[in-house]
Amino acid sequence: MARGQRVHPFVAAAVVLLALTALVAGWWAWLDPAGFARFTNWPNHAHFLHDAGVFQIGIGLTMLLALWWRDGVAVVLTGFVFTNTFHAYNHAMDLDHGGHAYDAWALLAVSVVGGVALAVRVRRRERA
Q1: What confidence tens digit (pLDDT) does each residue in 54-92 have?
Q2: Range(s) of the domain holding residue 110
Q3: Which of 18, 61, 69, 127 is the 20 to 30 A CA-CA neighbour of 101?
């Protein structure tokens, strides 16, 4: 989308509605995995529901960010860094459910790469 080009009001409304849907489902799955599992009739696996919740939250936030920030690469990197960092948090929080002690650290290292890429992207755009 060209800089300064406005989003059609219907498209903007749809993005907001869909983002809010993803955010509500995501926060529910993350904060109350057992309740979410009962409602959706899925097995109650707390870690996977925490992950699904974080990914839905990340999708919702990225959708909303895209309405405001017209740099697609920066939007995607921001969404990735947020989502992957909270995914790492899930692995640390849910270590008693399985996984390895290094999983959270490995995911955080990937988030750092994404964060550095985002910083480079934003700096280069500010200089242009």
Answers
A1: 999 999 999 999 999 999 999 999 999 999 999 999 999
A2: 9-127
A3: 61
